[in-house]
Design brief:
311 residues; two-stranded parallel sheet; single chain; alpha/beta; globular; 8 strands
Length: 311
Amino acid sequence: MTRRRLFSVAAAVGAAAVNPLSAATRIRRSAIAAITDEIGKTPEDALAFARRYELQWIELRSIPGVKKEYAFLAEAEVKAAAVSYAERKLKVSFLNTSLLKFSWPGTDPVRRRPETPEARAARLEAEAKRFASRLDHLQRAIRSAHILGADKIRVFTGLRIEEPRSLFPRIADVIGEMTRIAEREKVTLLVENEGSCNVGTSAELADFMKLVPSKALGLNWDPQNELGLKQIPFPDGYNLLPKKRIGNVQIKGKGIMPGSPDRLDWKAILQALQNDGYTQRIGLETHVFDGTLIEAAHVSMKEILRMVDEI
């Protein structure tokens, strides 16, 4: 080896030490997904959106235009959807479900709307049935995930009470039981920080994850969700998270669109995820309710892709 070549190799090694990112850990367009019911008003519209932006992944929740969750569809319907996505070379990165997103028996959630005694009684009865059926519902979601080729399923932590941390031990017992089923079925449950639920902030998410160390439990981080709880999701919240347990990240339209008053520094967030070796998917959940949902989805996706190209 010549002297010049030796110095060249040494310089390359030094640069790698300063910037240890490899091609495998860089966030690229191939990591980007979108929830289909917020990018199209029909399944075909959603598929056209995915094709336009050359997405390789999609997230599923409800059938676009229909309030029916993929997780709980009849098996024949799930299989038909799976065939449709496979024909278009789309993979399902994450099955968003409403599992455990209701008030649990014996809890009194902070509710924004007043209820009549009759409405309250009917709600409590319905929610008690949902709680009692939680493992059956989990099995149905797992069946759908298997058919769709997804290995990650979203779960929540019950509607938020006045002192949510007081419920953490009970939530850990419930979700811990579910993770044992998930582990056997080779899927991962992802707890989402949702402002209306008992785990609503990054800090709460970080603390809760310590109570359930199962490898079958990860987290779905949605930084926008904690703004309503007066938290700073980045860098404060992000720095608290167990990075190796982040299984999915979601971006809200109002957090990424230029000019939005709730815009987050997503370029810095993406850079931090990349620096921390994040290799999972990042999904757009447009979540705009002023009649411009699809237009906002296009603006948001263009901005996401622009930022990914720049980091």
